[in-house]
Amino acid sequence: MHNFFNIFKIPDLRKRILFILFVLVIYRIGSYIPISGIDINQLNNLFNTSGFLGFVDLFSGGALSRFSIFALGILPYINASIIMHLMAIVWPKLKELAEEGEAGRKKIAQYTRYLTVIIAFVQGFVMSLSFRSFILPDVSVLWFVSYSIVGLVAGATFVMWLGELVTIYGIGNGASLLIFIGIIARMPFYIKNTAQLLVGGVSWMGVVIMILVLLGIIVSIVYIQEAIRKIPIQYAKRIVGRRMMGGQNTFIPLRLIQGGVLPIIFASAILQFPLMFSQYINLNFVQNFFAVYYRYDGFLYNFLFCFLIFFFTYFYTAITFNPKELADNIKKYGGFILGVRPGRPTVEYLEKIISKLTLIGASFLAFIALVPIVAANVTKVNSFMGLGGTALLIIVGVAMDLVKQIEAYLINRRYEGLIE
After folding, report:
1. Distance between CA 181 and CA 267 in Å, rounded?
2. Among 47-61, 304-318, 369-383, which range has the highest average pLDDT?
3. pLDDT of residue 275
4. Distance separating alpha carbons of residues 284 and 240, to the nearest angstrom
């Protein structure tokens, strides 16, 4: 507790944490402000009977099932960020803009905001039109669709702004923190559903096994997230003026999962598009296909989920880790990897190491995503289906990142760490 209270002894850190709490309170209040004209009770029944809609509702912290002004949540912004990252690879002009430094990044951030509004408008239109069967009798469909689109787009834009404010004036990534608090807010819902299953006849043993599986996943996530591969570096001695420089040994820490929680967030966001639109297409063959083959707990959905996890893991690693630049920096400062010649051999060695780490990391992410689904089917305890590997990875990853950044503030102010 002494280390915990040290957080509030640093004025700058205290202001940042209080600002985060203030923004999160606003975000949670907004998720309870419904858009008028819809029967909330009927809408809640729909979400309680649909596993996919419950999974989507997880990322909005229950705002979607209440059809609040924050029903779209932060997902339009995440989808826009994914599209801009992909376009920066295939579109030369955007790639040049990304390489211009701070000015280029601000320009891309502005384009991302514009794209967020466009995506929010499309999603808001589809959502408003699809929920027309839940409109109250005395409300016009055209009028409801019109003002609900305005409310949803305004809410999504406001949430995007809150996320950016947290990133700038708070600690950590604002979008990840908003998803994090949304998942945490759904915990009582899962506990209530589990209690109802026990009353309905589900065995205690199945619930205990499911809880142990989830705890085991959390432990493994912490272990893997902290795993690094140390690349030993030897710096040659050199004389600078009258001083002897270099000669020390150090290492380059390469994380097992370079992208952290981002690959699984991106994969989840992409897979939600076809499932979401399938809810609103009243064609028998489309409904049958999604009901049989493209279910949240089905083979095709999870196969594509694993494929996208691998894709985004390799993609994020490729755009954030440059072996040639790292090898040039090592050579520039008179260093070399033990047993590897400088230059091209160093680049090839780093590429080989990062390829192995990425393969292991992507396999782990896919494993984490699948285990809760398999455990739920075996134990018949499906009350935690929304709280799967994706949600747990986000919770643990964001929490660990937040703790590390607080640790950095404490260490810089010569306080003891938060975790000893």
Report:
1. 20
2. 304-318
3. 66
4. 77
Cα–Cα distance, 353 to 345 (Å, whole number)? 12
Residue with tokens 């999870």: 302
Record the tokens describing residue 152, joined without a space.
């949803």
Going through 224-343 in order, the beta strands assigned E by DSSP cover 228-235, 238-240, 243-245, 249-255, 335-337
Question: What is the homologous superfamily of the domain 1-185 according to CATH?
Answer: SecY subunit domain (1.10.3370.10)
Rounded CA gap, 132 and 129, in Å?
5
Q: Is the pLDDT of residue 330 over 90?
A: no
Q: Which of 44-48, 53-57, 239-243, 386-390 has the lowest mean pLDDT?
A: 239-243
133, pLDDT greater than 90: no
Type of residue numbered 124 = G
Residues 6 or more apart whose CB falls under 8 angstroms from that of 327 comprise 342, 343, 346, 347, 350
Measured CA to CA, the distance from residue 314 to residue 358 in angstroms comes to 6
HSE of 202, CA atoms in CB hemisphere, 13 A: 20
CA separation for the pair 286, 274 (Å, rounded): 11
Give the distance from CA 342 to its chain's centroid: 37
User: Tokens 């109250």 appear where?
Assistant: 136
C-alpha 376: how far from chain center:
23
Q: Could you tell me which residue, 193 or 414, shows the higher pLDDT? A: 193
> According to CATH, where is 1.10.3370.10 located in the chain?
1-185, 198-387
Give the residue from 65, 63, 58 showing the smallest Cα distance to 30. Answer: 63
- Mean pLDDT of the chain, nearest integer: 80
Give 1-23 pLDDT, tens digit per residue: 666 777 777 788 888 889 999 99
First-to-last CA distance in the chain? Answer: 12
What is the distance between the alpha carbons of residues 31 and 156, in angstroms, rounded to a whole number? 11
The pLDDT assigned to 50 comes to 57
For the domain made up of 198-387, the CATH class stated in words is: mainly alpha
Please answer whether residues 20 and 166 qualify as being in contact, where contact means their C-beta atoms are separated by less than 8 angstroms.
Answer: yes
